[in-house]
Amino acid sequence: MEVLLSGLLSHLDCSKLMLNFPQIYWEPQKAAFCGVHAVNNLLQGPWYTEWDFSKIALALTEDERKIMAEKGTESKDYLV
Fold first, then answer.
1. How do residues 5-45 score in pLDDT, each as one tens digit?
2. Which member of 14, 36, 37, 47 lies 3.0 to 4.6 Å from 29 by CB, making a disulfide possible if both were Cys?
3. Looking at residue 49, what DSSP letter applies?
4. Residue 72 to residue 66: CA distance in whole angstroms
């Protein structure tokens, strides 16, 4: 999880965060992308899109597949 969070925050220029503004950023939730909505509201700006989260999900899926393959592709737990 720490790697995921550092990946999410790695490209942010914290000086651009809208923390010094008196307004509160609010992004309505679209479809089932509550994670995007929640993170953008937390960071107070439109930092991420559904596509950014999709890329992260694909990378995590590939990492999981590699870890599971280390235990053997014949394992009943290996997902194809």
1. 555 666 666 555 555 556 888 777 777 778 888 898 899 88
2. 37
3. -
4. 10
What is the residue whose two structure tokens read 């737990």?
77
> How far does Cα 27 stand from its chain's mean position?
16
The whole model's pTM is what? 0.55
Backbone φ and ψ for 61, nearest 5 degrees, come out as -65, -45
Residue type, 3: V
Cβ-based burial of 17 (10 A; exposed 0-12, middle 13-18, buried ≥19): middle
- Whether 50 and 33 have beta carbons less than 8 Å apart is answered as yes
Cα 54-8-53 angle, rounded to 5 deg: 10
Helical packing angle, 50-70 and 2-9, nearest 10°: 150
Backbone angles phi, psi at 25, to 5 degrees: -75, 130
Q: Tell me how far apart the alpha carbons of residues 39 and 20 are, in angstroms, rounded to a whole number.
A: 18
